[in-house]
Amino acid sequence: MSATVVNQPQTITLHGRKVVGGYAEGEALVTNDTISGWGGINPMTGTVIETRHELRGQTFKDKILVFPGAKGSSGWSAAFHLTRLTGMAPKAFVFNEMTTKIALGAVVMRIPSVTDLDQDPLQVIETGDWVTVDGDRGIVEVRRLARRG
Amino acid sequence: MQLTDAERGMLDGSQGKAKQKAMDLLIRYGEALGAARFVDTTNVAGVPGYFNPVLLDYYKVTADDAYDVIYSRFDLDSDEVVEVPRMMVNSCALQGGVDAEGWQTLGKSIDALRMSETSEAASAARGIRILKTCTPYLAGNVPLQGEHCAWMESSAVVYCNSVLGARTNTEGRESTSAAMLTGKIPDFGFHRDENRCATHHIKVEVDVASLMDWGMLGYFIGAAVEEHIPVVTGRFSRPELIHHKHFGAAAASSGGVEMYHLVGITPEAATLENALCARSPLAVIPYGKAEQLRTYDELNSKASDSNVDFVMLGCPHAALEQFRQIASLLEGKRVSVNCNLWIFTSRAVKGEADALGYTKVIRAAGGAVLTDTCSSIAQAIPPGTKVAALDSAKQTHYLPAIMGIQAWFGSTADCIDAALTGRWNGRRP
């Protein structure tokens, strides 16, 4: 990827499908690992706790969480729902794989969420990029940090 | 989404506020999934209205006034509190965090017990069956082939789809609570024929017969196929119910398997071609002696101390035949003073185990029979536990991470031996 990055524009727009409407912007937190809800996150602290997860110990509070999708227990939606109550929720979801766990979780967290994007968000977005998510229109805009190349 | 007149009626509020809020949530959920319509569900398993101190605190309610508030605001994601009526369809409550009889053994407070009993009574008053188990299919709720269900609990979901040929996605707390009130769930995933075909072919090249063998095979397959659908052929003998139970639970925890096919055995796999819906598998994966040993070693990688101070059986909740085996291994013996033995099951199966005298034998040997929960769900182990022995790949996957202890994995006989001697003598297969 790095060789082509130099020639790309500073702002990249991805088009996808609305999962949950609304608008949010913030710093991206990107992982290539799927995320477990119950047993995988601590809803009280907004951190990933799963052993061997690449985000272990990191917080997703107020981040635009960019990830492949959900895995694990059927308590996924309830665990993420609790982060809304504790004020530890991410600002938006951008993800690849639709499942019942992630759809229900996004709905009850009431955060803008987009999937089925025309480019792989895991390839395009890096942790620290400034990302805006327009859930209703299914549009994700990525403003890259000065880096790479 | 396309709505029927009955669904539109519920959304309009003509069936009451609770059904209106439930339909509103289900429509938001169905649209998020991209589903075009609902199916009618006649069998819902969830954790309706359960509450804990965090929820009580957040909604500023006492336990006595909590049920409608928490069911409305958390379960139905409604900003308005509505009165929750009797449920529309066959609904049951799955496992919780406290055993009403064994709460002291579990180290739970009287407050936790009262909270659990209050929530349970409120569910019962609305017609919800209090099964309190991860194995509703062993406690009187056995869906029919083709029946549309809305179930939580990954080990029950995989059993429902694979062994019973009923149809459910892995639902969550909010969707099941809404489905109990409406009898509706989005037409998505496993409700549709085209999504039930096998995608990966697993060729078993080593003998698979015992409960431990099936647990290891499931654990291997889950890691290999993740959330896809395996079809299994080769050297396995016809599984009993408990083998399906441990195999599916393992595959659902190491991966996200929600359905599997065993050729010639499970209802949608008369032949390999049949299970694959005449398509080519995405991958053909062998499971031989090397893979079996690697799985065994991985499951046992979380333990090094051969002194065992805790043996936990019954994940998923023990079936009656497991009680028969455990009681016969314990008959006339004593659990080591250095070890605790806990066996978890449903209230329904415990009633049978009581009647046949198995519970008495286990208690006489110094073991405890507990219901409603398990060590991972209740986050309960005997005080001072450092090393556990388990016969469940699923519990081995979760318990060391959740409780910060070591855990050995082996056969039920290995685990009973550890309980009697306080030492792990399990051997590689």
Written description of the protein model:
The complex is a heterodimer of chains A (149) and B (429). Chain A is an alpha/beta fold and 149 residues long. Helix content of chain A is 19%, strand content 31%. Chain A is built from four helices and twelve strands, in the order H-E-E-E-E-E-E-E-E-H-E-H-E-H-E-E. Chain A has helices spanning 2-5, 76-86, 100-109, 121-124; strands at 11-15, 17-20, 23-30, 35-36, 41-42, 47-48, 64-67, 70-71, 92-95, 113-115, 130-134, 139-143. In chain A, the strands form three sheets. Chain A has an eight-stranded mixed beta sheet. In chain A, strands 4-8 form a two-stranded parallel ribbon. In chain A, helix 3 links the parallel strand 9 (92-95) and strand 10 (113-115). The longest helix of chain A is centred in the middle third of the chain and has 11 residues, at 76-86. Chain A starts with a helix and ends in a 6-residue tail after the last strand. Chain B is an alpha/beta fold. Chain B is 40% helix and 15% strand. Chain B is built from 17 helices and 15 strands. Chain B has helices at residues 5-12, 17-33, 53-59, 66-75, 110-125, 154-162, 173-182, 211-225, 241-254, 272-275, 289-299, 320-330, 347-355, 358-364, 375-378, 393-403, 412-421; strands at 38-40, 43-46, 91-93, 129-130, 149-151, 184-186, 200-208, 230-236, 261-262, 283-287, 310-313, 340-345, 368-371, 387-390, 406-409. In chain B, strands 13-12-11-14-15 form a five-stranded parallel beta sheet, with helices on both faces. In chain B, helix 2 packs across helix 7 (173-182), helix 8 packs across helix 11 (289-299) and helix 9 crosses helix 16 (393-403). The mean pLDDT of chain B is 97. Classes of the chains: A alpha/beta (149), B alpha/beta (429). Chains A and B meet through strand 2, helix 2 and helix 3 of A and helix 2, helix 3, helix 7 and helix 16 of B.
